[in-house]
Amino acid sequence: MIFDWLAERRRRNILNDPFSAEWEAYLHKNMGHYDYLDTTEQKQLRDLTQVFIAEKDWEGCGGLELTDEIKVTIAAQACLLILGLDHILYKNVMTVLVYPSTVVPVYPAGYGDQHGIIQDEHCVPILGQAAMGGPIILVWDAVRRGGIHPEDGHNVVYHEFAHKLDMLDGEINGTPPLETRDQYKQWNEVCTREYKDLRRRAAAGKRTFLDQYGGKDVGEFFAVATEFFFDQPVRMEAEHNDLYEVLKGFYKQDPATRMRRQRK
């Protein structure tokens, strides 16, 4: 309880400093979804962004100069996911490492399994990565491209931070912490069906709505589905309504309605 009180006091102090006009300009410039939000949601997102930037450790890697634009763009996209949640601001994310472009990451000392060994699958070129107990790794050119072009349905920040939400219960199983037994039941039924259908269609060489990378495993399915839920919500709602509804129930957001409202 004392810790919670101290954390809230620290966050109130952080928010005593105004969110600058320059920072908000970065949101309009680099985050297409920001303009879909109403004024109350925008204020909430700015507050979360400001606290996230202050509380996390940031490091520019591979010669990248870490600017306010980079921090604001990443933080705001990450915080969009938790806009409707009773969150703890990604307590399982301590460090954000940002590279300029596609990279084979170099990990900090102490990262790896209990023996300090880094597995082979973590030593390949990436656009982003989120590992249990590890930092978030992101590539700036992919972050910016995904934020500016939500119509593509690919957003590395949404993807990697969805993994961190999945990991909150200590497992990478494609199911973030839910509130009720019925919610878990519906999630399992819908996501299992959609996951199997994605794999089946991909194996048959058929076109799919979700990126076929989501068929790799259930963890990747949730992360990919999150990208499309926020970036192509109107189409998801129309073509994969059950999936849209379970994601809407978890995130407590309705991006399809937001997008239709913005287009009027």
Oligomeric grouping of the chains: single chain
Question: How many beta strands in the DSSP annotation?
Answer: 4
Strand count, sense and closure of the main sheet? 4 strands, mixed
Beta-strand level of the residues, as a percent range?
Answer: 5-15%
How would you describe this structure to a colleague?
The protein has 264 residues and is of the alpha/beta class. The chain is built from eleven helices and four strands. The protein starts with a helix and ends with a helix. Strands 1-2-4-3 form a four-stranded mixed sheet. The protein has helices spanning 2-15, 21-30, 39-55, 68-80, 140-148, 156-166, 181-203, 218-231, 233-239, 241-251, 255-263; strands at residues 57-60, 95-99, 128-130, 136-139. It folds into two domains: 2-169, Glucose-regulated metallo-peptidase M90, N-terminal domain (Cyclin A, domain 1, Orthogonal Bundle), CATH 1.10.472.150; 181-263, no CATH class.
Keywords:
264 residues, alpha/beta, Cyclin A, domain 1, four-stranded mixed beta sheet, 11 helices, 4 strands, MtfA_fam, MtfA_N, metallopeptidase activity
Q: Which helices and strands occur, and which strands form pairs?
A:
Blueprint: H1 2-15, H2 21-30, H3 39-55, E1 57-60, H4 68-80, E2 95-99, E3 128-130, E4 136-139, H5 140-148, H6 156-166, H7 181-203, H8 218-231, H9 233-239, H10 241-251, H11 255-263
Helix pairs in contact: 2-4, 3-4, 4-5, 6-8, 7-10, 9-10, 9-11
